Amino acid sequence: MSRWTLMLAATVLLGGCATAADEAKRQAADERELAETLEGYTPGRTLDCIDATFAGGPQLVGDSLVYRPTGGTLYRNVVAPNCPGFRGDQIVVAELYGSRICRNDRFRLVQRGGGSIPSGYCRFGPFVEYKKDR
Fold this sequence. Notes:
Blueprint: H1 3-38, E1 41-47, E2 49-51, H2 52-55, E3 59-61, E4 64-67, E5 73-78, E6 90-94, E7 100-102, E8 106-111, E9 122-123, E10 127-132
Antiparallel strand pairs: 1-10, 2-7, 3-4, 4-5, 5-10, 6-8, 8-9
Protein backbone atom coordinates (compact mmCIF):
# COMPACT_ATOMS: atom_id res chain seq x y z
CA MET A 1 0.00 0.00 0.00
CA SER A 2 1.26 3.45 -0.78
CA ARG A 3 1.77 6.16 1.79
CA TRP A 4 -1.08 8.21 0.27
CA THR A 5 -3.51 5.31 0.54
CA LEU A 6 -2.65 4.89 4.22
CA MET A 7 -3.02 8.62 4.87
CA LEU A 8 -6.39 8.68 3.12
CA ALA A 9 -7.62 5.67 5.10
CA ALA A 10 -6.48 7.26 8.38
CA THR A 11 -8.21 10.53 7.50
CA VAL A 12 -11.48 8.75 6.73
CA LEU A 13 -11.33 6.76 9.98
CA LEU A 14 -10.56 9.82 12.10
CA GLY A 15 -13.31 11.79 10.37
CA GLY A 16 -15.78 9.04 11.25
CA CYS A 17 -14.74 9.18 14.91
CA ALA A 18 -15.23 12.94 15.04
CA THR A 19 -18.65 12.59 13.45
CA ALA A 20 -19.75 9.95 15.97
CA ALA A 21 -18.53 12.11 18.86
CA ASP A 22 -20.31 15.17 17.46
CA GLU A 23 -23.51 13.15 17.03
CA ALA A 24 -23.33 11.94 20.64
CA LYS A 25 -22.86 15.53 21.88
CA ARG A 26 -25.78 16.74 19.77
CA GLN A 27 -28.01 13.94 21.04
CA ALA A 28 -27.11 14.70 24.67
CA ALA A 29 -27.88 18.40 24.11
CA ASP A 30 -31.22 17.49 22.49
CA GLU A 31 -32.14 15.28 25.46
CA ARG A 32 -31.25 18.09 27.91
CA GLU A 33 -33.34 20.60 25.95
CA LEU A 34 -36.32 18.22 25.87
CA ALA A 35 -36.03 17.59 29.63
CA GLU A 36 -35.97 21.36 30.25
CA THR A 37 -38.96 21.87 27.96
CA LEU A 38 -41.03 19.18 29.70
CA GLU A 39 -39.94 20.15 33.23
CA GLY A 40 -43.00 20.80 35.39
CA TYR A 41 -45.29 18.72 33.16
CA THR A 42 -46.65 15.20 33.65
CA PRO A 43 -47.21 12.91 30.65
CA GLY A 44 -50.75 11.72 30.09
CA ARG A 45 -52.61 9.96 27.35
CA THR A 46 -51.35 9.29 23.85
CA LEU A 47 -53.46 10.77 21.06
CA ASP A 48 -53.63 10.16 17.32
CA CYS A 49 -54.73 13.76 16.56
CA ILE A 50 -54.74 17.23 18.07
CA ASP A 51 -56.78 20.28 17.12
CA ALA A 52 -54.69 22.41 14.76
CA THR A 53 -56.75 25.52 15.49
CA PHE A 54 -55.37 25.84 19.02
CA ALA A 55 -52.03 24.06 18.58
CA GLY A 56 -49.95 27.06 17.55
CA GLY A 57 -46.59 26.62 15.85
CA PRO A 58 -44.37 23.79 17.02
CA GLN A 59 -40.94 24.01 18.62
CA LEU A 60 -38.36 21.52 17.29
CA VAL A 61 -36.70 19.80 20.26
CA GLY A 62 -34.45 16.82 19.55
CA ASP A 63 -36.51 14.22 17.70
CA SER A 64 -39.78 15.85 18.76
CA LEU A 65 -42.16 18.64 17.91
CA VAL A 66 -43.66 20.37 20.95
CA TYR A 67 -46.98 22.18 20.55
CA ARG A 68 -48.02 24.68 23.24
CA PRO A 69 -51.70 25.51 22.94
CA THR A 70 -53.22 27.92 25.42
CA GLY A 71 -53.69 26.64 28.95
CA GLY A 72 -51.61 24.23 31.00
CA THR A 73 -51.29 21.50 28.38
CA LEU A 74 -48.64 20.80 25.77
CA TYR A 75 -48.31 18.05 23.20
CA ARG A 76 -45.12 16.25 22.28
CA ASN A 77 -44.98 14.57 18.90
CA VAL A 78 -42.19 12.07 18.35
CA VAL A 79 -41.59 12.36 14.63
CA ALA A 80 -41.55 9.14 12.63
CA PRO A 81 -37.99 7.90 11.98
CA ASN A 82 -35.91 8.99 8.99
CA CYS A 83 -37.06 12.58 8.78
CA PRO A 84 -34.43 14.29 6.59
CA GLY A 85 -32.90 17.47 7.96
CA PHE A 86 -34.83 17.53 11.25
CA ARG A 87 -32.68 20.03 13.13
CA GLY A 88 -32.49 23.52 14.45
CA ASP A 89 -34.63 26.55 13.89
CA GLN A 90 -36.77 25.42 10.98
CA ILE A 91 -40.37 26.05 10.00
CA VAL A 92 -42.78 23.10 9.87
CA VAL A 93 -45.07 23.17 6.83
CA ALA A 94 -47.80 20.60 7.47
CA GLU A 95 -50.30 19.18 5.00
CA LEU A 96 -53.61 19.31 6.85
CA TYR A 97 -56.74 17.48 5.82
CA GLY A 98 -59.29 19.21 8.00
CA SER A 99 -58.81 21.03 11.30
CA ARG A 100 -56.67 18.42 13.04
CA ILE A 101 -53.03 17.34 12.91
CA CYS A 102 -52.91 13.55 12.98
CA ARG A 103 -50.42 10.72 13.23
CA ASN A 104 -49.02 9.87 9.77
CA ASP A 105 -49.95 13.28 8.30
CA ARG A 106 -47.08 14.64 6.23
CA PHE A 107 -44.98 17.75 6.73
CA ARG A 108 -41.82 19.32 5.37
CA LEU A 109 -39.19 21.55 6.93
CA VAL A 110 -38.09 24.90 5.50
CA GLN A 111 -35.16 27.02 6.70
CA ARG A 112 -36.05 30.38 8.22
CA GLY A 113 -35.29 33.31 5.98
CA GLY A 114 -36.55 31.58 2.85
CA GLY A 115 -34.65 30.80 -0.29
CA SER A 116 -34.21 27.14 0.48
CA ILE A 117 -35.69 24.00 -0.93
CA PRO A 118 -38.01 22.20 1.52
CA SER A 119 -36.85 18.95 3.07
CA GLY A 120 -38.19 15.60 2.01
CA TYR A 121 -41.49 14.57 3.53
CA CYS A 122 -41.69 13.61 7.18
CA ARG A 123 -44.58 12.07 9.09
CA PHE A 124 -46.07 12.92 12.44
CA GLY A 125 -45.92 10.21 15.07
CA PRO A 126 -48.23 9.87 18.08
CA PHE A 127 -48.99 12.90 20.25
CA VAL A 128 -48.34 12.63 23.98
CA GLU A 129 -50.36 15.03 26.11
CA TYR A 130 -48.51 16.70 29.01
CA LYS A 131 -50.37 18.50 31.80
CA LYS A 132 -48.80 21.27 33.87
CA ASP A 133 -48.02 20.12 37.42
CA ARG A 134 -50.11 21.88 40.03
